[in-house]
Amino acid sequence: MKADLGTRESMLAAVPGLRAFAMSLCGKMDQADDLVQETLLRALNNIDSFEPGTNMSAWLFTILRNLFRSQYRKRRREVEDAEGRLAETLKSPPDQQSHMEFEEFRAALAKLPADQREALILVGASGFSYEEAAHICGSAVGTIKSRVNRARKRLADLLSIEGYGDLGPDGAVQAVLSGESDQA
Asked: Which letter does DSSP use for residue 167 in this model?
């Protein structure tokens, strides 16, 4: 099967979500963009394996996740700036309160175990149902629900959030922490 116009449009529509998911995995925008580009290239090269009528976004997220895991296994013995000293010199202080809150959220998100962070991003931020996230991660639905629940509780603890009013104005952060975007 050749990628028709509808397939290409579906792939392009998934790019913002892929970039956000890749950023949550990589932590660096340039690496995330490279990961998304490689994902799209692999998807186009293997478009024959896509089953029409199934969820294009879930298929692309699965490719991205598998590609990230493969790259991670190759790099896990490499050590770059292990103590973060170089990275600290490259940061600039935030100018706005919302930027500071987002950075606090990102730091707290980074402290979650990878499996919990991945499940939370897929369900809370990317809008996938628990079933779709389970398919992407190759896990049981109950496992994904448990990971999302534990991740939300841990984030709330790390960010000292006691109630809904403490979540701030950012709708995406509210959705991730509150479960409003969940599709059971």
From this structure: G
Under a CB-based contact definition with an 8 Å cutoff, are residues 175 and 181 in contact? yes
Q: For 80-97, write each residue's pLDDT tens digit.
A: 666 666 566 665 544 556
| CB-based contact 104:166 (threshold 8 Å) | no
Q: Which domain holds residue 155?
A: 96-178
Give the pLDDT of residue 181: 46
The larger pLDDT score, comparing residue 77 to residue 29, is at: 29
Query: Domains in the chain: how many in total?
Result: 2
Is residue 184 within 8 A of residue 144, CB to CB? The reply is: no
User: What integer pLDDT is reported at residue 174 of this predicted model?
Assistant: 53
Q: What is the CATH number of the domain that holds 35?
A: 1.10.1740.10
Residue 113, CA distances (Å) to 31, 88, 109, 118, 119 in order:
20, 23, 9, 9, 10
For 7-22, the three-class secondary structure string (H helix, E strand, C coil) is HHHHHHHHHHHHHHHH
The predicted model scores a pTM of 0.52
